UniProtKB/TrEMBL annotation:
<keyword id="KW-0687">Ribonucleoprotein</keyword>
<keyword id="KW-0689">Ribosomal protein</keyword>
<protein>
    <recommendedName>
        <fullName>Small ribosomal subunit protein uS10 domain-containing protein</fullName>
    </recommendedName>
</protein>
<dbReference type="InterPro" id="IPR036838">
    <property type="entry name" value="Ribosomal_uS10_dom_sf"/>
</dbReference>
<dbReference type="InterPro" id="IPR027486">
    <property type="entry name" value="Ribosomal_uS10_dom"/>
</dbReference>
<dbReference type="GO" id="GO:1990904">
    <property type="term" value="C:ribonucleoprotein complex"/>
</dbReference>
<comment type="similarity">
    <text>Belongs to the universal ribosomal protein uS10 family.</text>
</comment>
<dbReference type="InterPro" id="IPR001848">
    <property type="entry name" value="Ribosomal_uS10"/>
</dbReference>
<dbReference type="GO" id="GO:0006412">
    <property type="term" value="P:translation"/>
</dbReference>
<feature type="domain" description="Small ribosomal subunit protein uS10">
    <location>
        <begin position="21"/>
        <end position="66"/>
    </location>
</feature>
<dbReference type="Pfam" id="PF00338">
    <property type="entry name" value="Ribosomal_S10"/>
</dbReference>
<dbReference type="GO" id="GO:0003735">
    <property type="term" value="F:structural constituent of ribosome"/>
</dbReference>
<dbReference type="GO" id="GO:0005840">
    <property type="term" value="C:ribosome"/>
</dbReference>
Amino acid sequence: MSFKDTGKMYVEQEVVIHQIRITLISCNMKSLEKVCVDLIRRTKEENLKVQELVWMTTKTLRITTR
């Protein structure tokens, strides 16, 4: 039996990139900061790319009317 050379090259499979966004909500800022620092530390240990934190307001605006 003989095999024909088709000229096709084997191409490596592309790596799938997963992007995850986490929203944490709490009135206790100390606990939020602790969780954020822990998440960032763990991702850096795994050599993953981490973007900076985006702080959101924790207060609710109350408008009193008559």
